[in-house]
Every structure is written in structure tokens, then in C-alpha cells.
């Protein structure tokens, strides 16, 4: 599973919260102006393809 914590912060408070959440997930928080990693989204009816 790919998890990203994204934030927008003018004063730095939201960044602190995003960093705390990301730390618990074992990742790093990224500002929203950085490009996102491409992800693969599974179809809703995945069981129909298995």
C-alpha cells in the first residue's frame, strides 16, 4: 500500500502535524506543490478479474 501525507502550511503549524502523522506511518510528509508518485488504483470489482 502506498501512503503519502501531503500538507499546505503558511505558518508551519500544519507541517508539524503532517510530520507527526507521517512519522507514525514511517514515511515523510511532503508539501502539496511537490509532484505525487504515480499510483495504480485497483478496479472496484477486482474479484471479477481474479
UniProtKB/TrEMBL annotation:
Residues 3-50 form the Flavodoxin-like domain. GO terms for molecular function: FMN binding; oxidoreductase activity, acting on NAD(P)H. This is Flavodoxin-like domain-containing protein. It comes from Anaerotignum propionicum DSM 1682. The lineage of its organism: Bacteria, Bacillati, Bacillota, Clostridia, Lachnospirales.
Amino acid at each position: 500500500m502506498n501512503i503519502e501525507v501531503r500538507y499546505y502550511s503558511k505558518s508551519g503549524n500544519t507541517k508539524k502535524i503532517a510530520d507527526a502523522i507521517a512519522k507514525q506511518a514511517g514515511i515523510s510528509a511532503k508539501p502539496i506543490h511537490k509532484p505525487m508518485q504515480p499510483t495504480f488504483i485497483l478496479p472496484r470489482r477486482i474479484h471479477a478479474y481474479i
